[in-house]
Write a structure and sequence with these properties.
single chain, alpha+beta, Peroxisomal Thiolase, Chain A, domain 1, six-stranded mixed β-sheet, three-stranded antiparallel β-sheet, globular
Length: 260
Amino acid sequence: MEGIGLWAPRLPGWAAARTILRGESPAPDAAQARPAPQVLGPTERRRAPDSVAVALEVAASACAAAERDPRALPSVFASSYGDLAIMDYLCEVLARAPLDTSPTRFHNSVHNAAAGYWAIATGCIEPYTAITAGEHTFGTGLLTAVVHATADRTPVLYVAYDIEARGPLATVAASRGVLGVALVLTPESTARSIAHLEWRLTTSDAPPTVARPENAVLVAGNALSEGLALLEALADRVERVIVQSAGPRTRLELRVAPAP
């Protein structure tokens, strides 16, 4: 692993989050509702929905930390539910006045919207995957990314994000707050490596690893909060085994060790 991007209202960027997750500094109050990704122009930045804003913010941060050209990286974008705020808007308008539907919001409703924005903003023509697996999304997306990097012997950008559920959809697709995570994964160690990952897939009912309670509360309720345990291990810079859910009775086991 060469680069990390993280954004949540109480974890605004990986540089700040490292000390917060280690308990060395307090988490700020959630004053900022969403990031402002500089990879987008001012007009696009204002128009982009929360899902796109957080996905592009962490993707750009991870690439910058890894000193990798975003145009050269294939990518995996994972979201449990996509943009639930836009889906709530579309359902409400279609039920009330279908002809009032906003074309801009409609094109932002597709599950690969964030990946499409990223490709356009960076000029990347490498392949990307947009994936969802419900409650197993973070682990399934990460598995997809590590298999891609391992099988194709190429660096891969992994981006996972979920936002607040709105309206009636919140009763069946529960998610709170905004959370985005991005990792630049490589098939072998490099001079820029910050951590080493060994992975294997197992069949088990064992519960996924959870972050410490004082950290878990910072992203509590978000559909991708399970991923915080991995970030906590990376912040602690100690060798640790992290288990992530990658499907019913399927677990992605990761041995995480800091690079020398």
